[in-house]
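Hi there,

I know you've been waiting on this one. I reran it after we fixed the sequence typo, so this is the corrected version. Both the input and the resulting structure follow.
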Amino acid sequence: MILYHFPTSPYSRRTRLALAHKGLEVELKDARAEPQHMEIVKAKWPLGTVPLLDDDGTIVGDSTKIVRYLDARHPERKIFSDEPRELRVTALVDGTIDHVIAAATRYEAAWKAEGLARAEKAAAELAAIAPSLDGWIASEMWLYTMTTWFAGLPARAGTNANVKKIVATGFALPGSLSEWAKRFASKANGI
């Protein structure tokens, strides 16, 4: 298996966490550091996005779909369940990230405040749910990667214009999520 990824992407990181949790060997190819890897991604995947998994010619894009694929192909140590709370958490995480990115980089001025308000509301719900999350499945992996991604943005703002725009929105996760994420740091070190 080959995973084309960006090291700092929350979507790529949760895919790497799922692969590690399942104990699957994968060759990592940094599509940001090596332009030829990004060209391969664009040739293999019409959306041209990462992460992208190439499993001996089976091409799967989108972190959620990759993890669903891995669960079907390697059902031991499942990552996803169809438990409603887990589906809600993963959707709220993706919505929070998407709204903040869109508010910073795509929304017209009139929509920025609305997008950030929606992200804040979702983050508040995630903070309320987090104390009950204590396994290491999709809900925890998604929330952990979002929390650590937001925490790492200020340090990267000087090196990436879009990250600088995200930081400039002033969006911040509830502090309780950072505390919650500390419980999982040992499961995610180096991934």
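Quick highlight: The chain has a mean pLDDT of 95.

Best,
R. S.
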